[in-house]
Amino acid sequence: MHLDPMHPAAWVVEELRAEGWIVHDLLAFTRSSTLMAASRGSSTPLVVKVGFGSNHVLHQLSVEQRPAAYGFYWYQQLTDAERALSRDDFRYERDLTIAATSIEHIVPAVEHGTSEHFDWYAMPLCDGGNFRPYLGDSKDRAIGLRVLGDIAYGIAALHTHGIVHRDVYQENILIHGGRGLLTDLGAARRIGTPRGPRTRAPEPHWPPEYATAYDSAAAAADVFSLAVLVFRFLIGDLPRLDGKRDIPKLPSSLRQLVPAALRHDPGMRPVAAEIAEALYEAAESCEQ
Question: What is the pLDDT of residues 61-71, one digit of tens each?
Answer without folding.
Answer: 667 766 666 55
